[in-house]
Design goal:
It contains three helices and nine strands. The protein has about 230 residues and is of the alpha+beta class. The protein has two domains: about 80 residues, Translation Initiation Factor IF3 (2-Layer Sandwich), CATH 3.30.110; about 110 residues, Alpha-Beta Plaits, CATH 3.30.70. This is SIMPL domain-containing protein. It comes from Penicillium antarcticum. Pfam families: SIMPL.
Length: about 230
Amino acid sequence: MPCLKVTVTGESAVFHYPERGALAFSVRANGPRKEEIAKEVTSISNEVQQFFKLLCPQTKEENAAAEHPVTTFSSTNIKTWSQPNDSDGNPAANPHHASISFKSAFRDFSKMSEVIGKLLNYPNIEVDSINWRLTDETGSELASQARKMALRDAIKKAEDYAEVLQRKVTAVEVTDYSQGGYRNVAMASAPKYKKARRSFASDDDEVDALDLTPQEIEVTGSVNVIFETVSDT
């Protein structure tokens, strides 16, 4: 009986609750005087940094102590630029711009919601993105599970075909299409609202924490497997 090839795709999905909330935000300003807006952005950024030092004393260490709500925190240098004309080609009223970008990772999602609420009370701060993540250890472990499940799925499919054909099959080639295991889950849009500016150190009850509902992270596996029929002897 001639050899028969069976090619199937095995797929899998494993879901896990996020372990980190990744927050990216920027301090931005524009105005008629370059020195003034640079000073304003620097002043607010210094206040932000002092606030985050209380949440994450070791700002550059992923293994910050478990009692700290923030695991990492970093910022860029100040960026300044000028745009003398507006979109219509007319002289811009506020041609000078300045910004500093920040990134942070939270393990405490309730604290993250509270912090975002404080950030959005500043007219010069914009939340750029919010992503839900896994730790590297968990991501690697779940990716391994997903790969194994995908291969078992492919084997089951091949055995189903072999049963109908009344043949036996064995795998001869496996191609992994998992593409890194999982992707971070982003919120559809970053929250935006502004109120009167307050100090970060303030515990004012009027500063509302946002209701951020973490979405489960899907870790997927995908393999293409080629099977060949084998004789009973």
